[in-house]
Amino acid sequence: MKIDRLSVQLSEPPPDMPSGIERSMRLEGAVILLVDQDPEYLDAMRLVLRMEGARVHTVVSAKEAVRAVGQWMPNVLLCNLGVADERVHFALRIVHDSPLLKVGIVEGEAALAASHPHDGFYDHVMHKPIDVEALMGQIERALWTLSEEGGPG
User: Fold this and answer.
1) Pairing of strands 130-131, 2-3
2) DSSP type of residue 29
């Protein structure tokens, strides 16, 4: 399954999922901060990741991301590189003292090939449309590593 821009607005799923939709606990323990400027994309990703058991917080700007890091203490950052700036990276380095999976998201093949000033900060860089299965596999591996090291999650 890949998620790019959706033509319909998806609403936040209720705490008890509607009948017919299976909820997995595959990402239980993941606290994900998703930073992107596209509200439809944020809604779609939040729905998919929550269905897999993750707690997901979304923001649309670097300024909001800096506040969110201290408030929610995520163990996974999914950040559109078009939104990220040095404040986000600085806040993560200062506030977050536990291991963190950092995935940079870029739009378009040209953006993926282009050199980015934050290269090396992110553990992985993916391009839209996001391959959700590949992303969930990366998150699962990071959560497993955290649990093996005695960290959060």
Assistant:
1) antiparallel
2) T
| Cα–Cα distance for residue pair 134/88, rounded to 1 Å | 24
Provide the 10 A C-beta neighbour count for residue 45: 24
Domain encompassing residue 88: 30-148
Does residue 66 contact residue 55 with C-beta atoms inside 8 Å?
A: no
Helix (H) / strand (E) element for 110: namely: helix 109-113
Q: Side chain identity at 25, as an amino acid letter?
A: M
For residues 68 and 95, give the distance between their C-alpha atoms in angstroms, rounded to a whole number.
Answer: 11
Determine the residue type at 10: L
Q: Is the pLDDT of residue 97 over 80?
A: no
CB of 52 closer than 8 Å to CB of 26: yes
**pLDDT tens readout for residues 32-62:** 999 999 999 999 999 999 999 999 999 998 8
CATH classification of the domain holding 44:
3.40.50.2300
Residue 13 counted as domain residue: no
Structure tokens, 53: 């058991």
Residue 110 CB partners (closer than 8 Å, separation 6+): none
Instruction: Tell me if 109 is assigned to some domain.
Output: yes
